[in-house]
Amino acid sequence: MVRMSPNIWNHSQTYEIENQAVDPDGLIAAAMERLHDHDGARVLDIGCGAGFHLPFFARRASHVIGVEPHPPLVELARARVADLPDVEVRQGEAEALPVRERSIDVAHARWAYFFGPGAEPGLRELDRVMAPGGTAFVIDNDSTRSTFGAWFARAHPERDPLALQRFWRRHGWNREPVLMRWQMRSRADFEAVVRIEFAPTQAAAILREHEGCEVDYAVDLWWRRYD
Q1: What is the DSSP letter of 17?
Q2: In 36-141, at which residue ranges do the beta strands (DSSP E only) sit?
Q3: Quick one: what percent of the chain has pLDDT higher than 70?
Q4: How confident is the model at residue 1 (pLDDT cuts 50, 70, 90)?
Q5: Which of 196, 157, 152, 147 minimizes the C-alpha distance to 19?
Q6: In contact, 74 and 68? CB cutoff 8 Å
Q7: Is the overall model pTM greater than 0.85, yes or no?
Q8: How far apart are alpha carbons 169 and 58 in whole angstroms?
């Protein structure tokens, strides 16, 4: 069952601005590299959206597959990587990945599908497609710390961060906390992105209380090595 992502599905151009603003210091990428170098790897980007991260992986991977369920985003991603011979974009879902068994060395899912309980079908698909020695990464918000984390916690009181941590550990995953930041080019960009990430009243409150174009932002990098 496809889970709609209203931010990118309905506002793909603004979400592109958000992608450009996320983690300008490359802390998430550095943490992933420490855990599994993707030189020569077969990489799978699950929920790749408009394909923002595919060229990054393509610089050093041997082959990159992006999987995305939303047809308009599939087309945007394919256009982005049209000149990259070792990258392809397939329409599909996390619960039924269009990928062969044991064919992936590095899997990456960033704010896509894997949000705790309910993601078990997708986790079983990772069990199927990951090659021995491969590593899967899931990046999600950490609502226990950072300015953005406090905003997220207020917007989503139904999410219990400690219960989410227990969920991931129960399934054999490890937590790598990363404190990165958003850095927009302008206040107008910052306001536009906040408005696609939060409900109108919440966005208005955030923009009243926070000045500038930047915010500290904590994420959890969950990872698992496959035998």
Answers
A1: H
A2: 42-46, 63-68, 87-91, 104-110, 130-141
A3: 100
A4: low
A5: 196
A6: yes
A7: yes
A8: 30
